[in-house]
Amino acid sequence: MTFAFLAFFVTAGFVAAQTTLPQGRIVGKVADDQGNALPGVTVEALSPRLVGKAATVSDDGGNFRLLALPSGTYEVTFSLQGFRTLVRKDIILQLSQTIVINVTLTQAAIEEQVTVVGQSPLIDVKSTVKGMTMTKEMFMSLPRSRNFDGLLSTVPGVQYDNVGGGLLVDGATGTENMWYMDGADVTQPHIGTRAQSAVMELVEEVKVTASGYNAEFGGSMGGVVNVITRSGGNSFHGDIVGYYENNNKLFQGKARDYGRWNPYDDEKWEYVNNDDLYFNGGSDRDPYTRYEGVFSLGGFILKDRLWFFGSFNPQYSDQKAMRGFDPSHASVRDQEFHVKNHVWNGQFKLTVAPLAGMRISASFVNNFSKYRGELPSITGTSAPPPPAGFYDWNKAGFDYPNYSGAALLDYSISNSVLLSLRGGYAMSNTQNQQVKAPGSTYYFGYSAYIYQNDPFFKANPSLLHYAGWSNWQTSNAARRATLRYKLEKFSGNADLTFYVNLGGEHAWKAGVQLIRDQEDVATVAEHPMVNINWGRGYYGLASGEPVMGKYGNYQIRGSWTSEYGYFWKIHRNSWSLYLQDSWTINGRLTINAGVRTESEYIPAFTPDLTAPGATAKPIKFGFGDKLAPRFGLVYDVFGDSSLKVFGSFGIYYDVMKLYMAEGAYGGFKWKTDYYELNDPDWTKIAASGVTSDKASQTATNRYVGTMDWRLPSWNSTDPSMKPVSQREISLGAEKKLAENVSLSVRLVQKHLIRTIEDVGVLTPEGEYYYSTNPGFGYSLRISNGGKFLDKYWETPKATREYYGMNVSLEKRFSNNWQGGLNYTLSRVAGNYGGLSSTDEINRNSPNVERYFDLWFMAFDIRGNILKGPLPQDRTHYIKAYGSYAFPFGLTVGVVGYSRSGMPITTQLLANNVQGYYPENRADLGRMPWTTWADLYVEYTLRMGRTSASLNLQVNNVTNTKTWQWYDNSPNRVYMDISDDEILSKTFDWQAKLNAAGDTYWKNVAFKQPTWQFGTWGARLGARFSF
């Protein structure tokens, strides 16, 4: 049986690739009362979270090492015949922490035992890593979201923001982090965001690392987030938990005001409040309810040998709404619609100790969800359901399977050798689409009511619709047929750690990692997708010919010229190698040095490689391209783990996401056909619904031309391109102020070395997009070996500079309370927000954002390179958390935040692109300062080993309403600016905007606030634990 276990887990560790599970270490030295090293001392550690026990024997130098320990509270025993046995209790070990315990044993004639309680080291004096570890005991007494990442924004330098695509760490964006669940890499391979969830009740610890991590970690220019799910134990324990929330006025505050263009008059800007406008002040809201249960049980199958933990977490939400479909009588809502969301989460973990020094675990996490039903717009402008229309809102929906598995083996072969094997798998999919378009779909980009007096529309008023109307659901995803969107990741590694004394203690570590990403995607427009722009022209064809008919223009995707959609089935294998050494000299100075190297490629997303320049691996980076050195110094000032100073340097490479390849290398087919709209009877367009029917798509109008927006870039990939990388330098100090109180200071600078983007360049043949490093290679002028005509300004290097200072005061839970207060002073500036575009508000399109789409976009109107604070810049950020457990069973927890507003920049819509900043960055100042807090209250009644509790959480208990964004575009129709006008450096865009005729539709909402901080909300919960 033992060998069967070994065979399974060794195999699991090598089938996959990059996984990293942070394990802790307890190390130190044993001496007698004369200071002489004591060899042969038996050192044993016990913990409720450790299956079996960890044991070792001190070596000739008195050194001992307990390796690969899960975090938890430990009791460590030191025993040697002829000496008093020493027991150290309440030693707290956190994720990936190394704590040093140096002890002295005294001689005794008879067996005696000395027990020392507490005095647990707070500070890891071996590591330069900075971040924060949150334990179950910590986050379960604080206000939190239902997912494990809900409290990560309390970490210094870390924030969730309205820009940046997710979790922002030290100025980096949401697609620059790495996410691990029980050691399995659950980072979404296509765009790099978090791909899996786990509710707080099923999590033991969460650690976010912001800087200073060693060579075994790669792929992140932001943070590394590790989630450890709960395990069993030597006693049975379980929970039955329930949560309830709804949207009535007892559970949710009044809706916030927001700015909008009137849905019936797209020239009218107005401020509205949905509660007042539609729901009788909030008394008659569309009823929403949410229910959630958590059922868990953990314990043992064999005490001290085999543990288990299992859980089930169903979630259900429901919303009903009355809607109408006559915009002229929007208050008439006479049809009922129903939205149902189902989530089935689950987790199972086995932990086994088959041999002395060996620990094995396997875990499975499931996140399956689905929804049925969608809500039409309350404005009455949506497509009606059958029989009047086509889209059956009540039947719409998708299924989203999602799960991961992880296996690990740690074997302490001796006091100085540790073998670790890891294996992981993660999968997500989109499938089982409930409603598909039966024929051509139509969308009005602009209102047809500008022609309401036209004879045709007087005779056919039912064909008049406002801007945003569609005969189908308006999203492109709903207009396509999705068969599957399956993403898989196999991950695993093997590493060996060896300790040796050579001028001090060395911890040598060598490892190999492999990632295999697989994607199988099929989503296509089965019928033409028609977008109609009433009264508007299109001026972006390569021929220069304007597309403007008597009534405007229309555009078709999924047509006689090309299918439209996503089609690919690909895989890639990426390898990593790393070496590192942790060298401790004289017990105080530790030098951490290492190097990591990686090999990866981007595959072709089409099997057709017959085109000129086509290749199976259009982008390849070998081990020599991604050499990442790491170096750090840590000094234990007093030698007692009470004060350390540290510094680190590192180069970090991004694991290249697969998103850019879908468009560049044949996976995304997108051609748009452009037509003059000369006949107001738009129902004739593509009436047959057949994508190959050219005559039907032209109808009585005029075809002008076609643009291929995703022409494969076989010959436009820069062969000299280098991988995305960043340099990091950090300095800091950490001081133990009291038994459970510490103060830390960190200074960090992160410099973007280079990025990869699609760069639009002008050549004698016309305009092309190249995949390259901005400021290098193809992006340079022809005279410098690039592709730009020499008369144009040379593309500048992508820049992002982050400077930060974090000051943090933390107190572990003791004496019924815990708390933390931290302050970050930072600046992130440059011309490039990151792999997620902070300029485009949460656009996650790594390596194909809009920063360099046209030759002039990295400059202002006077030819200056863009610089200044980026949208994610928050100069000041203050965070505080704390909880207190009263002796009569009441616990109160609070988390508070206070931050500077975002910088705002004028964005001129010009030459059919967004993201042009003629006045450079932050010319409009900043949004207001925002302060808010969340509250958690729980009352617990204990009855022996069981307890029952009720809890209430209130988000935004301060009822903060601060405006969060201003409209930053002065025009609503794209302005045409010639190259010569831009090159003159004197072009007056404001004069052109103010010219007679209002050609570019001056935006009356420019510089006006658009949306506020969200309203307060409450959630009730109950829990029974045993």
Written overview of the protein:
The protein is mostly beta strands and 1026 residues long. The chain has a domain at 130-227: TonB-dependent receptor, plug domain (Ferric Hydroxamate Uptake Protein, Chain A, domain 1, Beta Complex). The protein is built from nine helices and 54 strands. The strands form ten sheets. The chain has a 22-stranded antiparallel β-barrel. Strands 3-2-5-6-9 form a five-stranded mixed β-sheet, with no helix packed on it. A hairpin with a 3-residue loop joins strand 32 and strand 33 (589-602). The radius of gyration is 31 Å and the shape is globular. The relative contact order is 0.11.
Q: In CATH terms, what is the fold-level topology of the domain at 130-227?
A: Ferric Hydroxamate Uptake Protein, Chain A, domain 1
What is the CATH architecture term of the domain at 130-227? Beta Complex
The rounded Rg comes to 31 Å
Give start-end ranges of low-pLDDT stretches. Answer: 1-20
Helix content: under 10%
Please report the first level of CATH classification, the CATH class of the domain at 130-227.
Answer: Mainly Beta
User: Proportion of β residues?
Assistant: over 45%
What is the overall number of helices?
Answer: 9
**Main sheet summary:** 22 strands, antiparallel, barrel
Structural class: mainly beta
Q: Superfamily at the CATH H level of the domain at 130-227?
A: TonB-dependent receptor, plug domain
Average per-residue pLDDT, rounded, comes to 92
Overall strand count: 54
* Coarse morphology: globular
In whole angstroms, how far apart are the ends?
32 Å
